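Kindly go through the following sequence and its backbone structure tokens. Advise at your convenience whether the structure tokens fit the sequence:

___
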Amino acid sequence: MPTFRSPSPGRAAALALVVAATAYAIALSVLARDPDFGIVEPLFLFAMLGVVFPLLAWLCTLKPQRPATPLPEPRQLPRVVLYLAAFALVVLGWGFSSINAHFPDEPAQSIVQLVVKLVTMVLLPAVLFLGWKFGAKPTLPWQRLLLTFVVMSLAYLAMQSVFGRGLVTLRELAPSAATLAWAIPACFGWQTIEAGLCEEVLFRRVLQEKLAIAGGSQVAAVAWASLLFGLAHAPGLWLRGGHLMEGVAHATPAWAIAYSIVMIAPAGIAFGVLWARTRSLWLIVPLHGMVDLLPQLAPFIRAWSGHA
């Protein structure tokens, strides 16, 4: 019988990049059919999150102490992808819609969502795919990891301050200095757990690592994981009314898939680069919390203080 071999790392990387680029181009063309859709914002977003920040992440992690080879684990990739699909449909789609309906008030809604995320994005993946072995020996000393965290955090905060909506919504809310004094560290801690720990364990530690093991290419793993990271948000965009926040009155599955690829998938590239080159959850988990701090600060204050 003929034997089938995995493609070489170079071919695996080329295939992943071609598929990701093709998916992005098709998705962009789908969104561009809407006459109210502007192409400048998504292209700028891709330039920043898909090129500039991954390049900065690569520069910050030059000259590692040891090679970032895939961890010695079972491949398990089909099981991981199947789990991710079920998670996207059942939890991000139907599950969170049900939570929002049964717990309409804050902060109860956020607390229930956090519990569900911890169970489905950390606890179950750890049991099913990791054997509770979350970490690996980082390829950089803690001083370099700390420097990378500071540089990447400042870069993200600078971009969000100039181009994001976080400061605008915060100014509209006009919280007092006393409120900001407790809300900023509390929101950072919350986002580090709710977004950082949950998303990085599932999408980087589990999904991207299994992709790297299966394909033998870190580049391919980053590309595939970023694409799947975006696609996992499509059910939620369609079923939970995320389209309304984007000015789309009637969302379709095609719109949700296209939007997730164009507007969400690029956000995972820099984190994929950082995981591939450092193997440090201690870096990417709090960095993810810092990235979400400014956009989520005003909603966090409203949820936990009843600030109108």
Q: What stands out?
A: Residues 177-215 form the longest helix (39 residues). Residues 243-247 have pLDDT under 50 and may be disordered. Residues 66 and 139 are 5 Å apart (CA to CA).
